[in-house]
Amino acid sequence: MAEFTVDDLRRVMRAAAGEAEGVSLDGPILDLTFEELSYDSLALLETASRIERETGITFPDGVINDLKTPRDLLTLVNSHLAGNAG
Amino acid sequence: MTPTAVVTGIGIAAPNGLGTDEYWRATVAGVNGIARISRFDPSQYPVQLAGEVRNFDPARYLPSRLLPQTDHMTRLALVASDWALADAKLNPAEQPEFGMGVVTASSCGGFEFGQRELENLWARGGQYVSAYQSFAWFYAVNTGQISIRHGMRGPSGVLVTDGAGGLDAVGHARRHIRRGIPVIVTGAADSSLCPWGLVAQLPCGRLSTVTEPDRAYLPFDARATGYVPGEGAAILVLEDAARARERGVAGYGEIAGYAATFDPSPRSGRPPALRRAIELALADAEVGPADIDVVFADGAGDRERDRIEADALCAVFGEAGVPVTVPKTMTGRLYSAAAALDLAAALLAIHHRVIPPTIHVSPAADYRLDLVTGTARSGQIDTVLIVARGHGGFNAAMVVRRHA
Amino acid sequence: MRRRIAITGIGVLAPGGLGTKAFWELLTSGTTATRRISLFDATPFRSQIAAECDFDPVAEGLSAQEIRRMDRAVQFGVVAARQCLADAGLSPGELPPERVGVSVGSAVGATMSLDQEYNVVSDSGRDWLVDHRYASPHLYDYFVPGSFAAEVAWLVGAEGPAAVVSAGCTSGLDAIGYACDLLREGTVDVMIAGATDAPISPITVACFDAIKATSPRNDDPEHASRPFDRTRDGFVLGEGAAMLVLEDLERARRRGAHIYAEIVGFASRCNAYHMTGLRPDGREMAEAIRVALDEARLAPTDVDYINAHGSGTKQNDRHETAAFKRSLGQHAYQVPVSSIKSMIGHSLGAIGAIEVAASALAIEHNVVPPTANLHEADPECDLDYVPLTAREQQVDVVLSVGSGFGGFQSAIVLADPEAKALS
């Protein structure tokens, strides 16, 4: 996979944890916090786990819960895909 | 004085009706909800009929957030609990912080969700197992999800007693009302109509292999061949009667009596304990057999267990001493939800003054029961006995009565 | 007058030694029973460690037929029930059947058998339309774990109410609480109550891996369960059972039974917050503790020992520390708090009953078991967690608490029936 796009992320988030009442994933979500999106640690773990399975990358323990926004997550995924995750 | 527990709200998702009104219309009219299994192709299995809840679109009722983390039966439970609260005209946000609890029964948990994750585990590997598997399949999930959805922070409870569960949950909910908790959401939901769920039920040997929907589940009939599995939810709002009255809600009826017993081991040679459960429930309600207007029977659907129930009813009420009905003939047996649904139906019978029929059944004379067959029977109904049993030996009996 | 409830028999199967004596010796010596999983090949999993019971059903007297019929968890439950009856000086069939009930807690039922059976009938997950011809004849008993209560009821000859109580990880406490309700209302005179779970199975390990709730300290399993320690990194799965004989205190005294302790209060509350998360302020657990103490007519200062949930996850340890402070006030800083999960792991629904057994034994022996592996407490956990070494002290009143998925918090209070605080 070359790049994980915001639309890929939206698709995975929908399947992983859906939308809470009164929250939409359709708009500009990248800089909303996961908290604003009503994404708790469980929703985030399920999202991350689906990304791992889809892309073949493995996130180190602990990094996922430190992410604040979908942009953070997207950046993390793409840095792994580019092979420079450290 | 000990508070009286009244049912002020009912929410139903049943094979022959989604929502209380639709269910009750169908039930009084004798509409059968049993049909060939549609959720998957049952051709290869010896059992091909079930009572499935049809036309249930969870996305219509629940936020998409809840869908990836819930089994079908939890969605039924959540929607039924929404309906029950609306029916009770109860706004959870207006209740005291710890004043609402949740007590539900479950027989097998979220079996379809479990099948999907077991498939992920065995076919693809542990990393494919959902983060929600840690709770979505387990027996306590409905109590948890209902309490979260409505902000209920009072007592919690979950009972697993197979088909007796619906009554055991309500019986336990009544204990909480009696010790001063104003509201308990209670009842049960079950569904195991996935291939794995059906296969898991087969070894009990009591499922009917008949493929005609009007011939498969015939309790108290000489042609009885077993039962048809069903799915669904019946959720009730149980409330302290004094508080319900204060807010202007009369309720459907009072949980007046309850008892549970367990059958001795088949190897013991001792008699079944069902009759004692019935007698204890009547005593608990401080009523005699003559006060009971109708019995909603368990109706196992096999000769041996129908005989045990008929004997117990005759011993308590005399031969054909009380009208008996089995509305389950329209839905199949819903495991823990079966008794909760019968309880709801009993309350609706009191409310609408009509006994729903037992369909398809020609009662065998040797059971000596006054079975309400064919069409519904109208009349004054004030006090009802509900009988329920679960695999292994669980017996429960409950008396509900019109609340003055 | 309110009926009082005595614990007159204890049967425990726990990792590190079967039977009550071995269990108590393990706890008071601060020894850990956590190790690499041997029940199946756990190498593909993130967490490969657990606290397992070295359990041989044949040696425990179960017949070949019983072993085939019963899931491992049922086997535990039945053996523990037999032990508790013998410990109480009762034999099966001696009690009036109508006045005896059964309450068995289990969070995950026959998970182990279901997991294995699925592998078989689905051809290792290949067939969604699973093949019933390969199914065990006992599959229904795994399907509905009500069978757990049935087996115990048949063993003891109980014909009163029987139930499985399944409230996630508070199942053990809640099953005992349920039994107390039946005893207090006079429905029964004796309850065989407790809990069992045998969850060390691929599906359970995988589901806790998925939420990173279990410890991945695979290279050092003996030190992996570290409640309240700064370096803790999740709980360690366990298995086991504890069954108790609970009876009317007057009845117990009349027949000259040994009384370990009295159960004086119980309450459960939903947190209505999250299926797996805990509110950091401990509000609902504090409420459960308050109600349980109230039922016991005891003051917070009467509590001599808190047997904590102490699972070893960060959120739990902080949550319950907050709950103790909220419910007990200043006394929370004085009372010893310990977690036996540091030694025997977290056996989900069973652990609550095992912890009640430990609490009763603490009263019996006037010893507080330690929290093993606690070398440096999390700065946010600032109570007396009894690190490493058991403590001899007067123990008259014990509070034991539990938290479970589903958002459940339960609290139970045990006391020496002769304790001054009760008069």
Mean of the pLDDT scores of chain A? 89
Largest inter-chain contact set: B-C, 87 and 89 residues
Number of domains of chain B: 2
Profile the largest sheet of chain A.
none
The CATH superfamily of the largest domain in chain B is known as Thiolase/Chalcone synthase
Major sheet details of chain B = 12 strands, mixed
- The helix/strand class of chain B is alpha/beta
CATH fold naming of chain A: Non-ribosomal Peptide Synthetase Peptidyl Carrier Protein, Chain A
Keywords:
heterotrimer; A: 86 residues; mainly alpha; Non-ribosomal Peptide Synthetase Peptidyl Carrier Protein, Chain A; 4 helices; 0% strand; B: 404 residues; alpha/beta; Peroxisomal Thiolase, Chain A, domain 1; 2 domains; two-stranded antiparallel ribbon; 12 helices
Write up what this structure looks like:
The complex is a heterotrimer of chains A (86), B (404) and C (423). By secondary structure, chain A is an all-alpha fold. Chain A has a single domain (6-81), classed as ACP-like (Non-ribosomal Peptide Synthetase Peptidyl Carrier Protein, Chain A, Orthogonal Bundle), CATH 1.10.1200.10. Chain A is 50% helix and 0% strand. Chain A has helices at residues 6-17, 41-55, 63-66, 70-81. In chain A, 31% of the residues are buried. With 404 residues, chain B is α/β, with parallel strands linked by helices. Chain B folds into two domains: 5-246, Thiolase/Chalcone synthase (Peroxisomal Thiolase, Chain A, domain 1, 3-Layer(aba) Sandwich), CATH 3.40.47; 257-401, Peroxisomal Thiolase, Chain A, domain 1 (3-Layer(aba) Sandwich). Chain B has helices spanning 20-29, 58-61, 72-87, 111-124, 133-136, 141-150, 165-178, 195-201, 241-246, 274-285, 303-317, 336-352, and strands spanning 5-14, 17-18, 34-36, 49-51, 100-105, 156-160, 183-190, 232-240, 253-262, 294-296, 323-325, 354-355, 370-371, 377-378, 383-390, 394-401. The two termini of chain B are 17 Å apart. Chain C contains 13 helices and 16 strands. The two termini of chain C are 14 Å apart. Chains in contact: A-B, A-C, B-C.
